[in-house]
Every structure is written in structure tokens, then in C-alpha cells.
Amino acid sequence: MEQELRELETRLQRARQATGRLGFLPTVVKNRALKSVATALRDGSTEVLAANREDYEEARSGGMNEAMLDRLLLTEERMQAMADDVMTVAALPDPIGQVFASRTLPNGLQLSKRRVPLGVIAAIYESRPNVTIDISTLCLKSGNACVLRGGREALRSNRALARIVRSACLAEDVPEGAVEFIESTDRSLVGHLLKMRQYIDLVIPRGGSELIRLVAENATMAVVTGGIGVCHAFVDRSANPEMALRIVHNAKVQRPTVCNALDCVLVHREIAPVFIPRLAEMWRDAGVEMRCDAAALAILGDGTCGRVVAASDEDWGKEFLSLVASVRVVDSLDKALAHIARYGSGHSEAIVTEDYSSSSRFQSEVDAACVYVNASTRFTDGSQFGLGAEIGISTQKFHARGPMALEEITSYKWVALGTGQVRE
Predict the structure, then answer these.
(1) What is the pLDDT of residue 385?
(2) What is the pLDDT of residues 26-59, one digit of tens each?
(3) What percent of the chain is predicted at pLDDT more than 90?
(4) Are 236 and 335 in contact (CB under 8 A)?
(5) Which of 60, 97, 335, 376 is deepest in the core (most CB within 10 A)?
(6) DSSP letter at 379?
């Protein structure tokens, strides 16, 4: 353990030292490195996929659940998507040095804000190898050094991906230490890392509630938490039934194991007798289990519509991460809003409605990072938002919210340009 602690501190020191140059690295150098990463992801997919197969088989034989296995799995398509996202990041404007919020004071002093890197960002994450690429490339473009600590279940995959990024960076004269990967999976090492605020400016946990709580309660540096998504869709009485079915089905079924997948459907009582049976028929064919309140069960009658069971109290406010969803009939928009306020996690919430007043109230009154009107919650994603990727999805309010990309992992400094002004 003593040797691992020394190695951890050495890597953190290298990351801190790299920030001196990273903040001034020309955009063209950063973009060349990013393009090299994208090329290597395409050309080196055989090695990465082989490493991932070993991780996947070991995790499956060890009893990992289906949701985590899906997050762990890499395919040719997912490798291509990662490469495409890296190219998107390369094409985005460099945030460092951007000047904004300029104004001139009455005394002639010209004030503005200028974007600067945060410094060293540590990421502690579980299962998802794509996080290795997302965080390292976003940090590179934004002039931040990053320290990556993945989970034991994805060690081979993460090691292969980190090697790709580090090789591309060194080939393009990016400072050594810009991307540091911690290979030790000793859980006690995380506790030590969370005390090293002299090296780390921000830590981001990505994983289950246990990991997030551990980091939030023990970190001595700033933390951005999120990723737990209890997502709702409210089908208003004025909703177009065809649109509502398409949105709700997509939000639940398109990829049920991720944090922006739908967990609960709230249906206005006036449209429920028409909508719920059609939803049950669609979800029967897709293999979705519906956990229904008494009103929804009464509408479905004899239960021949598929996997339909009575909901328990634990089914409200639960992130299922599988083909399971809770269904509740509500009397009004007010009841839907009250349910979301009580059980939502602040991630993504949606309304399907043709009523402008309902739409406006939902947008204004729902307290969540992302609010959707007539669209699927599955869009809460840095890539889908045109950000290239995300370093995480924040469900808190300081300092960023929702998908965190380039701007969200920068800070700023005030710049004052004068002509000899002094304070009286």
C-alpha cells in the first residue's frame, strides 16, 4: 500500500505540474492531439475490444447485473461513436481565453471575464470505459489535467483506452501529466486521493449512489455529483396520444440501463383510459414490466396486457435501470408537479402536452437539470446536446447543472483595463 500511495502522489504531482503549460497550450496542438485520439480509437479498436471482452466475461461470471454489464460493454459501434464524439470536441471552439460579460464602468475602467482552466480534475468512476475517453478529451480541450481512477471491473478496458490518449498527447507535445491513469483498484486508495486537495481542484464521481455518497462525504476539495436519474414523463390531458406513446416508449426502451432513461409515467386521469391500454400493449411487446397504481390497474382490467403488477411504495422515486417502469394516474398538472417534486432526483423530467399553459408551468416549476416539452428524456447527454461528450451530468446547482462539457469545466478571472484610474 505504501508503494501505491507514493505512485498516487507522483501522478498527482505530474498532473499539477502539467497545468502550468496546459492553460497556454495552443488550440491547434490540442486539436491535433484530439484527432490523433479519434484515429487511434478507430485503428486500435481490436486491442481495446479484446481487453473489454476479458473485463466483460469476468464481470458476467462474477454476477454483475445486466445494467452494469451494458455500461461496461464496448462494441465496434460504441468505439466509432466515441471517436466521433472526440472529433466533435476537436471542432468546438476552444473555451480558454474567451472573453465575455464585458462592460465599461463610469470611470472608464473596462471590465471583462476571461475563461481559464479549473486545474486538475480527478474522476472516480465505475464500469463505463467510455468515461476514460470523455473526461480526458474534454479536459485536454479545456486546458485541465485529469487523473482517472476507474473500477476493477473495467481495468483492462480503461488501461487500453488511457494508453491511446496518453500516446496521442505525447506525440503532439502535450505536457506529460496531462492525463494520468491510476491502475490500482485498491478501494482504500480513493480515501487517500480525496484528502489530496493540494493537487486536485475538482473531483467528479460517476457511478452508483454508494460511490457518490462516499466521495461527497469524504472529499476535501470541490465535488460535482449527479448521475442518479429518477426520470418522469407526464402525459397531460391535451397530449397527442401518438406523440406521447412514441416519446414514452423511446425514453424507456431505447436504452433502459442509463441514467436518462424513463422510470415513471404520470398520466392525466382524462386521457388515461385511452393512453394506458395502448402503452401496455406496446410495452408488452417490448418486455417492459409496468408497476401500476390502483387507478392504472383498474383501467387495465384482467391483466392480460403483459407484465403488469401493483406498485409498491418503493416503486416511486426508484431508478430502475432495466425494462421496468412505474405508472400512476394523476388528477391534474398540480398533482404531477407534486409527485415529481417529491420523488424526482433533479435529473430529467418531461411533459407531453398541447396546452401552452401546462407547458409553461412545467418548464417554470419543475426543479431539474433538464426539462423537456414533447421530447424524450434520452437526450440528456453531452453528445446529443452538441457538446461532444460530458464529464458528468450534474444534478446539483453549484457550479454547473446538467451535462458538463467544455465551458462547465472552466472558471474565469476578471480582467480590468485602465488608463491610470485610482480609487478615490
Answers:
(1) 96
(2) 999 999 999 999 999 999 899 999 999 999 999 9
(3) 92
(4) no
(5) 376
(6) G
Query: Which residue bears the cell 467510455?
Result: 130
Closest CA to 243 of 278, 291, 286: 278
What is the residue-wise DSSP string for 237-273? TT--HHHHHHHHHHHHHS-TTSTTSEEEEEEETTTHH
Q: For 240-276, how does the pLDDT look when each residue is reduced to its tens digit (9 = 90+)?
A: 999 999 999 999 999 999 999 999 999 999 999 999 9
Domains of the chain: 2-225+396-417 (3.40.605.10), 231-379 (3.40.309.10)
How many CA within 13 A on the CB side of residue 271? 24
Cis-peptide, bond into residue 268, ω within 30° of zero:
no
178 vs 185, higher pLDDT? 178
Q: Rounded to whole angstroms, what are the CA distances from 205 to 150, 187, 222, 260, 375? A: 10, 14, 11, 17, 28
Query: How many Cβ atoms are within 10 Å of 225's Cβ, its own excluded?
Result: 21
Q: Can you count the helices (H) and strands (E) in the chain?
A: 14, 17
